[in-house]
Every structure is written in structure tokens, then in C-alpha cells.
Amino acid sequence: MQRCGSIGGASVGRPRLMATVLPRGLALSVVAIVGLAGCSQSTTGTPAAGAPATSSSAGPTSSSDPTTSAAVGVAVDAGVVETSVLRPMQVESDDFWEEILALAGSSAGVSAPMSFLAESETLDCGGVALSGTDHFGPTYCAAQDEIVVSATFMADLGASQVLQADGTFVDPADDVGVYFLLAHEWGHNIIGELVAEKQADLTLVPSQQVELAADCLAGLMIAGVPRVFAVKDTEAVLGYVPVVGERFAGISGSPAARQAAIEVGLAPDYEDRAQFVTGLDQCLSSQAPQLAKALG
Description:
Layout: E1 19-21, H1 28-33, H2 78-103, E2 114-117, E3 122-125, E4 128-131, E5 139-141, E6 146-150, H3 151-159, H4 172-198, H5 207-224, H6 234-237, H7 241-244, H8 255-266, H9 274-287, H10 289-295
Parallel strand pairs: 1-5, 2-6
Antiparallel strand pairs: 3-4, 5-6
């Protein structure tokens, strides 16, 4: 779904995934809104004290010690990748944004379902063909308002040996990296929902600003989803980008700009949920000032 350049001048030797597509007739600035997804790596830990007890906290946990968990080195079935890795991440993402948008007093909601394309399937996304054989990671399709994942991406992830046989990650850094791919796409969906809520005019909004805002919102999610990611190094978060690539790499920010955007998103304290409402505003105002202006 997408290809990316090196991050911080260094490539990372791990498989990753993601992207976004818009209707062909929309202005380039609008195309960016549903933009592309990043790729990344990071780590997860145990829920912090006081972390909200929600059903989404049942997401996959990671172990950096493969000797204490399921077998490593066996290809993980795509069905396990979907049910044990991606679906729990989807639940966490939905729960997070429902909470934060409600706290922000917004009527916007999380609308995009996650759809999986079999290898034999294709999807016309506003004139861009998405295929079940794509090696890119998840892609947000604005035309269909859904996040699309290819069977090939899941098979690649299952065969990459970053997962144990039960779907948990061998290295927590890979866990957060895969989550960033999804989180960036969810960021595009949230931006689109806010634009629809405000009926904002995006004519003067540069695509790159929207991409950086989506990166920032992804950082916000890494900081605030019910499961706590222990490692929040931005180079690790973006580690999957040069490996998996991005479909619209030409409109994404520079490696330094993307790292800076993610840092803004990572700043809130998990325990202080009001900080995430402020963080939402900061992601828009600092990374996409013209978008923030359009949203009023």
C-alpha cells in the first residue's frame, strides 16, 4: 500500500506496512486527508496503574523473550494475524477515539471499519485499484470510508518471524511498529470525520500538513490506547516505513518532520486523559495549521 524512504538516514531491516486512497476527483489537499500510512516499530508493556479497564485492553501482548511464549520461526496463518493482531488493535483504536472525541465535545465518531481483501479480490478506491496481492500495509480508502488490509500483507507479516505462533510479537518494537501503521490510517479517518463535522473547506490545505497531522495523531494513539507501549522512541516507531513503503511517499513529510510530529503526539501522560484532548488540538495546530484554521 505504500513505500517510504529511510528514517533518520537509516533503514530498518524489518517487514512493515500501510497507505491511504481518495476519490480521483478530489483536490490534492483532500487526497492527503485520507492520506498514507506510516510504518513503524515499538514496544508494549503492561497497563499502567490506573489504566482504564476496557475490553480493548485484551489486545495482543508482547514478550521480548521468545523462550517464555509460543514457538518462533513457524509461519503464522493469516487468520491468526487478523484475529490475534489486527482486530485487537482495531478495537483499541476505536475505543481510544470514542473516548477522546467525547471528552473533546465533538460529535465526530470513528466510522471506518477494517476490511480484508483476499488475494483474488480488488477494490476500486476512487480510481485507485487496491488488491489483495498488495504488499503494502493497511490503507485508508476515503471513497469507501474503510481501512483495507490485503491478504498478502498479512501473509508477509505471518512469514516474517516477528510473530510467535500464537500471534504475539517476538520483539515489542515490532508490535508498536505494526500498530503505528494502523494508527496513521485511523488518524486520517479522524481528520476526515472532523472535516465532515465542521463542513470545512480544504482547498488551501497542503497534503503534507495532513500527513504530518496523521503522524501526530498516531503518536497520540501510541501514548494513549488502553494497552501501554513502553518504548516510544520515534525512530523505532517509524522503523517499518522504509521496509514496507508508502503508496504516496511523495506527499509525506521528511523523516525529521515526521519524527517531530510523532513526538508531539507522544507527549500526553497516559493517566491524564484531558491531555489527549489538548493533544488532539496540538496535533492539528502544530502540524497542519491551515487545516486547523479550516476546522475553526
